[in-house]
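Re: Re: ligand-bound prediction request (bumping)

Still looking for help on this. To restate: I need the protein modeled with FE2/S2 (inorganic) cluster bound, output as structure tokens. Inputs repeated here so nobody has to scroll up.
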Amino acid sequence: MDRLNAIAPEDLVQRHARPGMSLVAVLHAIQDDVGFVPPATIAPLARTMSLSRAEVHGVITYYHHFRQSPAAPVTVQLCRAEACRSMGTEALAKHIEARTGCRFDAHKHQNHDGHDHHACAGAVGLESVYCLGQCALSPAMMINGELHAKVTPQKFDALFAAAMKRVEETV
Ligand code: FES
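Reply:
Sorry for the wait, this slipped through. Here it is.
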């Protein structure tokens, strides 16, 4: 049984929600704990924080940082903010999509069966983020939490191949 399945959504919320905390702070704590914000926590979060389910859902989907399913084994987070855009991040995004066969931010759009469809070829997830604090070294990205700056298509290919290799070695 994985860690998440061992924790009931109610317990997960009670573990992290403290009086006076903002919803965003509680969501951060939950995601830091189990890697994402399980949809089943929306109802207990709403009850605990005296909010509607729609308000909780709205905050989760508004902030790109929050995910509603576990991260893909190789998760690429590309900065799409202004400084990186001026240095070609959109062309880089197209290259990455062609290279991986995945779409950016597919994880934000769930299928009707409730499952995310981020798990494209090779279990890769592509996510847009907005400023990684590396504006002077743009375009910037993270691959599985590791920061990379001045990323070119060639540099991405090498980083991506290395990340895929690491995943294959752990299977
Ligand atoms: S705009 Fe991309 S790192 Fe700041």
